[in-house]
Design goal:
The protein is of the alpha/beta class. Helix content is 37%, strand content 15%. The strands form three sheets. It has a seven-stranded parallel sheet, sandwiched between helices. It has a two-stranded parallel sheet with strand order 7-9. Helix 1 packs across helix 6, helix 7 packs across helix 10 and helix 8 crosses helix 9. It is globular, with a radius of gyration of 19 Å. The termini are far apart.
């Protein structure tokens, strides 16, 4: 297959590009900065999905595309992401693209107001689902050496003398190792089977946030006292998180806003990936926590 990876220079995009090549597919990358394009690409097209520049050229002759665009650190995140999704959907429709994969997040439980992060992802989903060949692949927290969701946990445990946790510590979060995430994404974009419009990646585990913190401590062999506080707010949690991590207050508030609910996979939506077995939780955490790039935050 001839595959396009939009956002090929990012963490997920570069991994998918490499894995697709290993499976024998021809891979074109769409990037803003050609200096950051991974070496595994067969071809690079330079452009900007936020403005639509270069998308028509990038989509020419493509059988399937992966869309990895997310302005996590932008204060105008919603506007930029929606504009980018609309430009891509328009160009994909014009090129008669037959299959596209978008990595998204698990939604809040039915009836719960969507937190900031989910609101953004779900709005982008709706734009992209207008494409007839779109497959939305949802996942919980991805456990990888450069995972934006996992890094704050690693850094807090390494840097903070204690870990304060509000009532949200009881909520569950589906987590999955990066290798399983990559294999599920490759399968979604390249299998000839129809797997559905919205699918869930199976989880390595669905621990509470407190259980997850304790499991990370075990993986790092570094234990901190957990202080269970009776109340908290996303603003306070974001302030504390940004104080001890490399993330901005803006990004930390996105993370804090999603902790108020359980996020678990829908077993009926994991069926297309029944042949893929996730790593057990502890093994996944040990791999992510011991990676050299995850140690760069030590002070």
């Amino acid at each position: 297959m001839r595959v396009l990876v939009v956002g090929a220079s990012g963490y997920n995009g570069s991994r998918i590009a490499a894995r697709l090549r290993e499976h024998g597919h021809w891979v074109r990358g769409f990037v803003r900065d050609p200096r950051r394009a991974p070496a595994e690409l067969d071809q690079v097209v330079v452009g900007d999905v936020a403005t639509g520049v270069g998308l028509s050229e990038a989509l020419t002759g493509i059988d399937a595309a992966y869309y990895f665009v997310h302005s996590l650190d932008s204060t105008d995140q919603d506007g930029r992401d929606l504009a980018a999704a609309r430009h891509f959907a328009s160009a994909a429709n014009s090129s008669a693209l037959t299959r596209c994969v978008f990595l998204s997040t698990l939604p809040a439980p039915n009836g719960a107001p969507a937190p900031l992060y989910q609101r953004n992802r779900l709005a982008v989903e709706q734009e992209l689902l207008a494409l007839p060949g779109m497959i939305v692949v949802r996942a919980g927290m991805v456990l990888g050496d450069q995972s934006r969701g996992l890094q704050p946990y690693l850094q807090l445990i390494r840097r903070a003398p204690l870990i304060p946790m509000g009532p949200w510590r009881r909520h569950r979060m589906a987590v999955v190792d990066i290798a399983t995430t990559t294999e599920c994404l490759v399968h979604a974009g390249t299998t000839p089977e129809q797997i559905g419009r919205i699918v869930d990646i199976p989880a390595s585990g669905e621990p509470t946030h407190e259980q997850l913190v304790r499991a990370i401590m075990d993986a790092l062999n570094l234990h901190r006292p957990i202080v269970r506080v009776p109340w908290s707010t996303p603003t306070l949690d974001a302030f504390l998180t940004s104080r001890f991590t490399d993330d901005s207050f803006h990004f930390s508030r996105h993370l804090a806003s999603i902790n108020r609910f359980d996020y678990v996979v829908d077993p009926t939506r994991t069926q297309p990936f029944a042949h893929i077995t996730p790593l057990p939780l502890q093994a996944a955490l040990e791999m992510a926590g011991k990676s050299p790039s995850s140690d760069r935050d030590s002070r």
